[in-house]
Amino acid sequence: MNKLARITSALAALVVLGAAAAPAAAAARETPAAAAKAPHHGRGKGRPQFPQDAASFSKRVDAKIAKQRAKVEAKMQKGGVPDARRAEIRKALDDAQARVRAAVDRAAKDGVITQDEAKQVRKLAREARRAIAEQLGLGKKHEKKAKREKGKGRRIVVPVT
Question: Structure pTM?
Fold first, then answer.
């Protein structure tokens, strides 16, 4: 009798597992369409897939440009930057952002952005940020910090034990 009870419980468990697996199998069939719409949960913030539609890439770049402008404005407000200096910074920022937008427009001529085109736009944007920092003298702080960390040229004496 004990053997019959074990067989019955094993069969009941298989039936329950089979019933639970059926919806999972149906969901597995739907995953390609759902995965295309679902956000990416891996490295980075929803890394874009390439080739990408030019409109969505342009929208993403515009959002990053707006975020950069907001950060610069907030830092100028917090730092109490004089109006003349603010105008100079805004002009440099406008020029750099115009170059990035022009690169996006060149890449988007065919309506599709490839990964290589996106890398070129990203490289240009980084170079533009560095040029702004150099032009406005913002990189000096980092140079001073690097010199401090480099050391004074003193030897470190290690006692021999």
Answer: 0.57
